[in-house]
Fold these 2 entries.
Entry 1:
Amino acid sequence: MILFSLVCSREHGFEGWFKDGAAYESQAALGDIICPVCGDHQIRKAPMAPCVHTGKAVAAVPAEVLREAMVEVRRVIEENCTDVGAAFPTEARRMHYGEIEDRPIYGQATAKDVQELAEEGVEVVALPWMRRQDG
Ligand SMILES: [Zn+2]
């Protein structure tokens, strides 16, 4: 995950997490990134200079801390969502098109699946899936 400092066309600064630089580019191109202050879709990366401190702070987070955070994310997802496994892209589509009732799900999807779902307007978040130490 990468943290980018972003700015809208009205100069509101905010930050967003992205899987990688390409994920930012594609979401920005699709207008999927929205200014939390004014709702503007015209988002660009903030100039680098004001981001120095943010960049250092992110880089200074020990890998172990990030790993624990991702394990926590996994725990919350597993407690609140249904594991549909490899059927995830199919199930997410069926919910999006109203064929089945909406419910929180998680499962496996390839990067290509995620991109296709996003292109169809299905709200999907791709997360690195951390192995738990107890299992
Ligand atoms: Zn704005």
Note: Residues 8, 10, 12, 35, 37-38, 40 surround zinc ion (CB under 6 Å).
Entry 2:
Amino acid sequence: MSDIRRQVELAASAGMPVLITGESGTGKNVVAQSLHMLSGRRERAFVQVNCPSLPHSLIESELFGYEAGAFTGANRTRNGKVDQAQNGTLFLDEIGDLDASVQAKLLQVLQDFRFSRLGGTEERAVDIWLICATHRNLQADMKAGRFRSDLFYRINVVSIELPALRDHRSDVAMLLTHFLRHYEQKFGRSLAPLSGSVLKLLEAYHWPGNVRELENLVKRYVVLGNEQAIVEALHDSEAASTDSVFVPDGNLPLRIQTQRAVRMMERQIILRALNEHRWNRRKTAQSLDISYRALLYKIKDAGLPRLRQAHAHACSPEENDVHGELNGSGSRFRHDS
Ligand SMILES: Nc1ncnc2c1ncn2[C@@H]1O[C@H](COP(=O)(O)OP(=O)(O)OP(=O)(O)O)[C@@H](O)[C@H]1O
Ligand SMILES: [Mg+2]
């Protein structure tokens, strides 16, 4: 995350269009706001447009505004978001959802730095810093003809890719500390440090909802005041993901989708076998006819926390087997003995 922070600082000082990508909950909105706050435009407007929430028929007038009489019901001239963002920042969230006609008009704005309101003839000069975000794979959308490549290259001058939390687990402890402090302050509470076994569980978890999920979990802990709430939430999520079905993503090549489907199936099979054998990994390996080492590797690779064990630990801390091998902000975590 310190690497991302550096990228954000650089992008903020460069002032060129930025495209932020990442799974849901990885912090795209947080990054967009930080970019603005670190830029020379921080005193000016930060205007956010949530593209999918606007009907296609309205988005053009929402973005570019309209002149009185432009269409039925347009009885007075209205500024669009581009106008509101003058000299400031325009943040287009989920830009992958813009339809072709709006993509064309936006491209024109980025090429000429001029635009006109709907129904207007007057050309208006634009001075905005454009930041876009999407959870979609725009390159795949481009290949499939859903996103204009000329627009893609204009909005993607600087790109910031936010990794999924499962790909930077070493930041989990730091984020936990941050959210704990925040919610303790917000709710006026002070909590016992989290046990090492729960931190280990959190670091091993696969975080489908990324930072947002971690934040919600901490909030729940602060409100309910016991670790069991965290363990149970992870348990439920794990159980739900075991039963989940693979959802094909038309944006990705067949090879990648097949790989993902197979990995997901394998994960489910392993988790089921582990549960059958009460997380006895030797017996599980035997039943699956793979080596013990191969099973350990697959458990780690699939981000399967040792839920049963952690469950037992959270119930009776004296049984813990974690001996201070934890990293990060140690002061907030109890190293169980
Ligand atoms: N680096 C971070 N530091 C602190 N909080 C963060 C960080 N990243 C994300 N969050 C928190 O996680 C939550 C989700 O972040 P955000 O809304 O920016 O994600 P997103 O990528 O825009 O998600 P979506 O694709 O669903 O819109 C927010 O509550 C945000 O405050
Ligand atoms: Mg968002």
Note: The two ends are 31 Å apart (CA to CA).
